[in-house]
Amino acid sequence: MKLRPGILTIIAVDRRLAKPLYRQVFEGYRDAILEGRLRPGQRLPSTRGLAEELGLSRIPVLDAFDQLLAEGYCESRVGAGTFVASTLPGERSTPLASLTAAGRRDRPGRRAPARGSAKLERPPRPWLGSSGPFHLGDAAFDQFPFATWARLLRRHARELGPATIRYADPMGYLPLRRAIATYLVTARALRCSPSEVMVLSGSQQALWVAAHALLDPGDQVLMEEPGYWGARDVFRAVQSQLVPVPVDDEGLDIARGIERAPRARLAYVTPSHQFPLGATMSASRRLQLLAWARRSGAWILEDDYDSDYRYESPPVSSLQGLDRDSRVVYIGTFSKVLFPALRLGYLVIPPDLVDRFIAVRRVMDIFPPTSPQAVLAGFIAEGHFARHLRRMRALYRERRSALVEALETELGDEVEVIGEKAGMHLVALLTRRRGDRKIAERAALAGIRVLPLSECYLGRVTRQGLVMGYGGASRSETQAAIRRLRAVIKET
Fold first, then answer.
1. Based on the domain organization, do 232 and 174 belong to the same domain?
2. Does residue 6 have a pLDDT over 50?
3. H or E element in which residue 476 lies
4. Long-range contacts of 379-388 (CB under 8 A, 24+ apart)
5. What CATH number corresponds to the domain at position 43?
6. 75 DSSP β-pair partners
7. How does pLDDT run across 452-466, given as a tens digit for each residue?
8. CA dihedral 364, 370, 376, 382 (to 10 degrees)
9. For residue 123, what pLDDT is reported?
10. In terms of domains, do 327 and 232 share one?
11. For the chain: N or C, fewer Cβ within 10 A?
12. Domain shared by 347 and 421, yes or no
């Protein structure tokens, strides 16, 4: 195309794109300005000339120039035309596309991101990728009562009105809090009322709120060793000092913890089914922990992430139910018993701390979404939750047995199975000197998701093993995956 004198073509438009033509013109000029290809004070072509040059009508070009003027990228001078705004800084940023992860250290500017957040960055962990056999986040999703849930969703949608879409209680939807409190008192022997239950977006947000409500920077936190990395990340983010405390067959070694950090502000524990090793904290250790918290004025954060699933005994009573001094904050979640995409969990907060937790919650997200809470409240109230839990308990018992049998058949004395009496995962300790991380990386290439036990250590790694979820794999899938895993281990 022959260009008109004085008109610089720096953009292109494509009529085949779904993006409006005026938007393509606007973004073309905006990017040219931001990347320094057009300088402050430089004149733009006339809208008539540009429309002719691009083969467009004048309307999308006028709309694009209006947008450039409205957002301050350009300025109009009466009788002279449209110019790149003279107030824009002469120095330009690096185009976003060129700022790769590898080049972050060369980011312009003197200030780096917060040092605390840098501690949360980790190398790639392929075992936490998409779903696959033994993925810790998987449950028997195909067994979920989708029709019942869909019916409750439709009913809630029909009942929507002004009262259901306003700003709501930061503690959560009251009917759901009542249902949770009733369940916890009955099934987990908690001491609580609906006024002490706060609904959150899963247990990870519950950890975040609790950490901000209970800890100051520099406070010491007793952590199970090995333990849950998600909790460690939260405490690191609030600049706590993490103190690893070994666990054994009775759970957290309280005496060692007190010896290492007598003035610790908080202890994070998973007493019903220790993550990842699977021990149940003994009554003696529970009473020691509560006595320490009472004497020192410390807090206990009880993460009860999968206690509903026990296969050789009834569910173990909660630590919070033994607490007579209001030192325990209890965390629960629906991710394991229903599905993780629901993003609903909860805290049970000591009465005198409720206002403090509400203050933290208001800063974070004000209140939880009402609609999913209302659907879940109906699901519990109509008895579907209890029925689903009974069915899943039986199914996971069978799937656990299938995994244990496959490990014994295919791997024999290569592994030692522990932590299989409860929950939705077990640990296959490696009996020979093999690197669990290398095995997990190679297993991921074979479509198998096993967590290396060494990933769960804060300090020195004392045992190597594979943490394996069994909720999402059928018996036949488990057997086939273990055969592939055997080949991976033999080659490592």
1. yes
2. no
3. helix 475-491
4. 379/148, 379/149, 379/152, 380/176, 380/179, 380/180, 380/183, 381/175, 381/179, 382/152, 384/145, 384/148, 385/183, 385/337, 385/338, 388/144, 388/145, 388/337, 388/338
5. 1.10.10.10
6. 83
7. 999 999 999 999 999
8. 150
9. 67
10. yes
11. N
12. no
Q: What is the dihedral of CA 314, 319, 321, 326, to 10 degrees?
A: -170
* φ, ψ at 377 (rounded to 5°): -60, -40
- Nearest C-alpha neighbor of 296 from the set 333, 269, 257: 257
Tell me the two tokens of residue 283: 């009554």
Please state which of the ranges 34-43, 171-180, 210-219 shows the lowest mean pLDDT.
34-43
Structural domain count of the chain: 3
Secondary structure (3-state) at 422: strand
Domain that holds residue 281: 155-386
In order, the DSSP letters of 222-288 are EEEES--HHHHHHHHHTT-EEEEEEEETTEE-HHHHHHH-TT-SEEEE--SS-TTT-----HHHHHH
Cα gap 440→450, rounded to integer Å: 6
Let me know how long the chain is.
492
Tokens of 400: 């656990």
Q: Does residue 121 sit within a domain?
A: no
**Which residues contact residue 351 at a Cβ distance below 8 angstroms, ignoring those fewer than 6 apart?**
195, 196, 326
- Of the three residues 357, 386, 415, the one that is the final residue of a domain is 386
Residue 159, amino acid: E
Same domain for 240 and 171:
yes
Give SS3 for 203.
helix
User: Could you tell me if 438 and 310 lie in one domain?
Assistant: no
- How far apart, in whole angstroms, are the C-alpha atoms of residue 97 and residue 81? 32
Contact 479, 433 (CB under 8 A): no
C-alpha triplet 75, 78, 82: angle, nearest 5°? 35
Nearest by Cα to 43 from 67, 70, 8, 69? 8
Give residue 349's identity as a one-letter amino acid code. Answer: I
Give me the pLDDT at residue 366, please.
95
The answer to whether 168 and 370 are in contact (CB under 8 A) is yes
- At 106, list the tokens: 């060369």
Q: Are strands 345-348 and 465-469 parallel, antiparallel or unpaired?
A: unpaired
Using a CB cutoff of 8 Å and minimum separation of 24, what contacts does 146-154 make? 148/379, 148/384, 149/375, 149/379, 152/375, 152/378, 152/379, 152/382, 153/375
